[in-house]
Amino acid sequence: MTLVTMSDKEIGRLGVLRDVDAGRMTAGAAAAVLGITERQIYRLLKAYRRDGPSGLVSARRGKPSNRQSPEPMRNHAMRLIREYYTDFGPTLAAEKLSEVHQVEFSRETLRRWMMADGLWLDRKHRLRPVHQPRDRRPCHGELVQIDGSKHWWFEARGPQCTLLVYIDDATGQLMHLRFVASESTFDYFAATRVYLEAYGKPVAFYSDKHSVFRINRPGAVGGDGMTQFSRALNELNIDIICAHSPQAKGRVERANQTLQDRLVKELRLAEVDTVEAGNALLPAFMADFNKRFAKIPRDPTNLHRPLAETDDLTKLFAWREDRMVSNSLTLQFDNILFVLEPTEFALGLRRKRVTIADYPDGRLELSYDGVVLPYRIFDKVQRVSQAAIVENKFLGGVLEFIRDKQAKAPPRTAKKHGPRREGQLPKMFKAG
Fold first, then answer.
1. Are residues 394 and 378 in contact, defined by beta-carbon separation less than 8 angstroms?
2. Alpha carbon separation from 57 to 9, 10, 49, 51, 165 (Å, rounded)
3. In sequence order, what DSSP letters do the residues of 323-381 get, joined into one string?
4. How far apart are CA 259 and CA 99, in angstroms?
5. Residue 185 in contact with residue 358, Cβ under 8 Å?
6. What dihedral angle (degrees, nearest 10) is formed by the CA atoms of 128, 88, 94, 84?
7. Residue closest to 145 by CA, chosen among 169, 162, 176
8. Phi and psi, residue 92, nearest 5°
9. Is 11 exposed, middle or buried (0-12, 13-18, 19+ CB in 10 A)?
10. Which helix (H) or strand (E) holds 48?
């Protein structure tokens, strides 16, 4: 018994030709059914009577097409692709072969060849990254995901701004929302302070790798390796964990998508067009959102810890940097020259590092080992300007300041405030 492989078209012809051969159908009717001429019916009928069903099978099956490119041309094209364009897609590879090598092939031809040689996968077979779901943490307050979502929250009615989102991992409950101009350190200071005063200290915050949370510069040296925000959390005994990818912190990412739909519409219905009015609407929105979507945690234990009496949030949520005191009791910070009052305690601080605390309200405080140091701004101005009048006893400190400023001076560009100054009130220079 011989096995004959036939296409659907050929199987259809076989049934009709059997009827014609048995006299159950005329050649004209068969031609109308198959959509071919009577002459073709007689030709196929002759082949069927001579060879049986195998006579209806195309003689070209299994043989190369008469229209295909010669094998040497195919080999030449694939050699060029392997040598120069191994990571190119078929469309771009076809363009480069034509432009650079004057070798003309269609992108579909190259696509078939590259797929046959394992240089390209079609869309159906490309492996997408697998992001396995992670179970929620069991306890409320164990892990709080935080993120900033920049969006046109007020649509065309108001400015584009950022929504800081704090969401509990165990319950999906929105813990805190706040509209701000951008994701700055001082804005996160303010939002986190409100969170801590309302709920206490969670075990850990879970964030992305934004520079507020993590030092991202390769090879960064000096300091303790912490950002200002992570330093404040460390002193509060709160950990911060940075996710490797957006999918890892999917809870807050999905919440952002929902907020960009629901919250935008609520703001539209309330005709809110300013950040201040938006922040006023958020508590009621959060209450309704949590009522609809928050889950019950697997473990009823609340892991938030109360703030201790020693947790001074005003001091902790300040920008702090250390500076060296010169022999003339001067130091500089943010291009400003400070002069310590020559008290007996301050005289012992020459060539030692003091801490400058830059508060969100603009105050500056100088201290050493917890002792606040009185100071004044040089010549009652914020900067040492050209042709400034300098008393002789301050000349050494001023020259040291000028040399350091000149060495660090960047190319002249339009002045822009760094992100850490965003969200902070103007300076209020007050003696410590």
1. yes
2. 10, 7, 13, 10, 68
3. EEPPTTSEEEETTEEEEE---HHHHTTTTSEEEEEE-TTSBEEEEETTEEE-EEEGGGS
4. 49
5. no
6. -160
7. 169
8. -70, -35
9. exposed
10. helix 38-51
Pairing of strands 336-340, 353-358: unpaired
Structure tokens at 88: 């190119």
Using CA atoms, how far residue 364 sits from 35, 184, 361, 382, in Å, is 92, 19, 9, 13
Q: Does residue 418 sit in helix, strand or coil?
A: coil
The string of DSSP letters for 301-319 reads EE--BPPPTT--HHHHTSE
β-bridge partners, 299:
139
CA distance linking residue 282 with residue 286, whole number of Å = 6
Kindly report the pTM of this predicted structure: 0.61
Which residue in the block uniquely carries the two structure tokens 């303790």?
224
Tokens describing residue 35: 């959509």
Neighbours of 349 (CB within 10 A): 20
CB-CB contact of 145 with 206 (8 Å): yes
pLDDT tens for each residue of the chain, 432 residues long: 567 777 888 888 888 888 888 889 998 998 998 889 999 989 888 988 888 888 888 776 766 666 667 788 889 999 999 998 888 889 999 999 999 999 888 989 999 899 988 888 877 767 666 656 677 889 999 999 999 999 999 999 999 999 999 999 999 999 999 999 988 999 999 999 999 999 999 999 999 888 888 887 654 444 456 889 999 999 999 999 888 777 777 788 889 999 999 999 999 999 999 999 999 999 999 999 999 999 999 999 999 999 999 999 999 999 999 999 998 899 988 878 899 999 989 999 999 999 999 998 888 999 999 899 999 887 544 455 555 555 554 555 566 666 776 776 666 655 444 444 566 666 554 444
Compute CA distances 391 → 328, 332, 381, whole Å.
Answer: 12, 17, 14
Q: How far apart are CA 357 and CA 366, in angstroms?
A: 6
CB 149 within 8 A of CB 260: yes
Which residues share a beta bridge with 258? none
**Please, are residues 249 and 206 in contact by the beta-carbon 8 Å criterion?**
yes
Q: What is the DSSP string of 183-243?
A: --HHHHHHHHHHHHHHH-B-SEEEE---TTTS--STT--STTS--HHHHHHHHTT-EEEE-
